[in-house]
Design a protein that fits this description.
Blueprint: E1 38-39, E2 46-48, E3 79-80, E4 102-103, E5 111-112, H1 115-139, H2 153-171, H3 177-184, E6 198-201, E7 208-210, H4 219-239, E8 241-242, H5 261-268, H6 274-297, E9 306-312, H7 324-328, E10 339-345, H8 351-354, H9 362-366, E11 370-376, E12 391-394, H10 411-420, E13 425-429, H11 432-445, E14 452-456, E15 465-466, E16 476-477, E17 482-485
Parallel strand pairs: 2-6, 9-10, 9-12, 10-11, 12-13
Antiparallel strand pairs: 1-2, 3-8, 4-5, 6-7, 13-17, 14-17, 15-16
C-alpha cells in the first residue's frame, strides 16, 4: 500500500525524476533563529551555530534532566540489539567522535577513529569499497561524489540514488542499511554539494559546509536535532535500543485538555531518561494524534459508548507495537467510552500471530471498559469484514508515491475506499512537503475539502531520523510531524 516507514533509513525509495513539487507553506513562526554561522579560526575547521536554536515544540521544550510528577513509573533498563548505522562524523566501529579521522583511502566515504578500527572493519567494508572504486573507474572520476556540485535538490537525490544502485549492482548483493546510508547521506556541503575543503558545525560536529556557504544554510534551526540523532546512534551502539516501560495514564474523570506531547508526559511521568523519553513519544504519537483529531474535529464521538478506528497500512514495528498504548493513551482518556475497537489493515502484517486476545488493566475491568484489536493482512480496498470506522488513520503513508507495495500503485483504490465511509480521514507525514503532495494525490483521485490542516502535529514523535526526501529543507524528520484531516 505504498508504505515506507523506514524509507529514510534502510528502504530508500527511488526519487521521481519528473515530479514537480507543490508550493511550500510558510513556516510557522518560531523564537529568534540564529542563522549566521561563523567560521572557527582554530585548526579544527568548525563553525558555531548553537545560539538561539528553536525547540521542536513551540510551547516549550521539556527539561529531560528534571523530575516530573508520577509515582509508579520507573525507567526500564531493558535494551535490545539494533541495526548498524552510518554517520560520516562517527567512527564506523565504535561510533565515537572522529578526533583524529582516518578515512578509507580507497573509497573516501567511510571514516574511523584509528587505523586499528579501519583494519578491524575492512572485512565488512571490502567488497563495497571495491565496488565504489570500480564505479569511479567506469565514470572516469576520482571520487564518487564528483559531478554533484551545484545540483538542484531533486537531481541531487537522483544522483545519490544512482550511486547506491550502481554500487549495489557491482557488489552483486543487497546493501545493508548502513551501506545505503553511505550514499544517501554523504559528507558534502549543505549548499553546493562540494565534497572537498569543508568546515564542520562546532555544535553537532556533523553537518559540513564550504567556506562562505554556512551563512546561507538553515542548519541552526535543526542543529540540536541532528546532534540528538547522533547521540541516539552512539547510545544504541554502546547499550542497545531502548525498550521503555509504558507509563499508565490513569482513567480520567473528565476529558483532558491536551496541548502537546511534552505537556502530556509532564502530567503523567515522574522520571524520564532522555532516550527513554524520545522512544516513548514515538510509541504514544499514534493514539494521542488520533484522540486529538477527535477532540478537534468530531466531538460528538466523545459521548458515545463505542469508537471504531481503522489504521491503514499498519506495520508491526510502529502502529501495532506496544498495543497497550491504545488503551493507556486513548481508551483511558475518554470517560464515557466503554469499548474501543482498533482494526489494523496492511499487507505487511502477520495477522495469524498478531490476532491474540488482549486483556485490559484492572482499572478498565472495574469500570467495564474494554478494547479489541483486529489485524488484516491485506490492502485496504481489498480487505473484507472491516467495520464502519468512526475515524480512519493513515500514519506516514507516502500517498503521493505512484509505486508502493510490490511495485504497484495500490493507493488509488485504497484512497477511494477510505473516503467512501464519510468518516474523517487523518493523514500524517514526516515533512511539510510530503503532506502537501499527499493532499495533491488525494485530490487527483477525488476532490476533497480539508476539515483541518495541513499543520504541525503537536503530538508528533520527538525522536529524530535522517531525511532523504526533502533534506534541503530539513536534515531530520519525525514521525507524524505534519497532519491534516479530510
Amino acid at each position: 500500500m505504498g508504505r515506507r516507514k523506514n524509507k529514510h533509513k534502510q528502504e530508500i525509495s527511488p526519487p521521481n525524476e519528473n515530479r514537480q513539487d507543490p508550493p511550500i507553506l510558510k513556516p510557522e513562526k518560531n523564537s529568534k533563529i540564529q542563522r549566521d554561522l561563523k567560521k572557527d579560526t582554530s585548526d579544527s575547521k568548525e563553525v558555531d551555530c548553537i545560539t538561539d536554536i528553536p525547540k521542536i515544540n513551540e510551547t516549550g521544550a521539556m527539561d529531560l534532566q528534571n523530575e516530573i510528577s508520577f509515582e509508579t513509573y520507573h525507567p526500564s533498563s531493558e535494551r535490545f540489539t539494533g541495526r548498524e548505522y552510518y554517520l560520516y562524523s562517527l567512527c564506523q566501529v565504535c561510533k565515537r567522535e572522529l578526533v583524529k579521522k582516518v578515512t578509507c583511502p580507497k573509497c573516501n566515504l567511510i571514516s574511523y577513529c584509528s587505523q586499528e578500527h579501519r583494519r578491524e572493519h575492512w572485512p565488512s567494508h571490502a567488497d563495497l569499497c571495491d565496488a565504489v572504486v570500480a564505479v569511479c573507474v567506469d565514470r572516469g572520476v576520482k571520487h564518487i561524489m564528483q559531478g554533484a556540485h551545484n545540483l538542484p535538490p531533486d537531481k541531487f537525490r537522483i544522483f545519490r540514488f544512482k550511486n547506491m544502485i550502481d554500487c549495489e549492482t557491482k557488489v552483486e548483493r543487497p546493501l545493508e542499511g548502513w551501506e545505503k546510508e553511505m550514499f544517501i547521506f554523504p559528507n558534502v556541503c549543505g549548499i553546493c554539494k562540494e565534497y572537498n575543503n569543508l568546515v564542520v558545525c562546532i555544535n553537532c560536529k556533523h553537518n559540513s559546509f564550504c567556506v562562505g556557504h554556512q551563512e546561507k544554510s538553515n542548519h541552526s534551526q535543526w542543529c540540536e536535532h541532528v546532534l540528538q540523532f547522533k547521540l541516539i546512534v552512539e547510545d544504541q551502539s554502546k547499550f542497545g535500543v531502548v525498550r521503555p516501560s509504558i507509563p499508565v495514564c490513569e482513567i480520567q474523570p473528565a476529558l483532558p485538555k491536551l496541548s502537546d506531547i511534552n505537556c502530556f508526559f509532564q502530567s503523567i511521568c515522574k522520571y524520564l531518561e532522555k532516550f527513554e523519553y524520545l522512544q516513548l513519544t514515538e510509541i504514544a504519537t499514534c493514539p494521542l494524534t488520533a484522540l486529538n483529531t477527535i477532540l478537534k474535529t468530531k466531538t460528538e464521538l466523545l459521548s458515545t459508548k463505542k469508537i471504531s478506528l481503522h489504521i491503514v497500512g499498519a506495520e508491526s514495528d510502529f502502529e501495532t507495537s506496544n498495543l497497550e498504548k491504545w488503551e493507556y493513551y486513548f481508551l483511558h482518556l475518554i470517560p464515557n467510552l466503554e469499548h474501543l475497537q482498533v482494526e489494523f489493515i496492511g499487507p505487511e502484517l502477520n495477522a495469524k500471530t498478531e490476532n491474540e486476545k488482549y486483556t485490559v488493566c484492572k482499572q478498565c475491568l472495574i469500570r467495564n471498559k474494554s478494547i479489541s484489536f483486529k489485524f488484516y493482512n491485506n490492502l485496504y480496498h481489498l480487505c473484507s469484514g472491516k467495520s464502519k470506522p468512526d475515524l480512519v488513520c493513515v500514519f506516514n503513508p507516502g500517498l503521493y508515491r505512484s509505486t508502493g507495495f510490490n511495485g504497484a500503485d495500490t493507493w488509488s483504490p485504497s484512497i477511494t475506499n477510505m473516503l467512501a465511509y464519510g468518516s474523517p480521514v487523518l493523514v500524517t507525514e514526516y515533512t511539510q512537503k510530503e503532506i502537501l503532495m499527499d493532499i495533491e494525490r488525494v485530490n487527483a483521485t477525488r476532490q476533497i475539502l480539508l476539515k483541518s490542516g495541513p499543520s504541525r502535529n503537536p503530538f508528533s514523535s520527538l525522536k529524530p531520523s535522517l531525511n532523504f526526501v526533502s533534506d534541503e529543507e530539513s536534515p531530520v524528520i519525525f514521525k507524524n510531524y505534519f497532519h491534516c484531516v479530510m
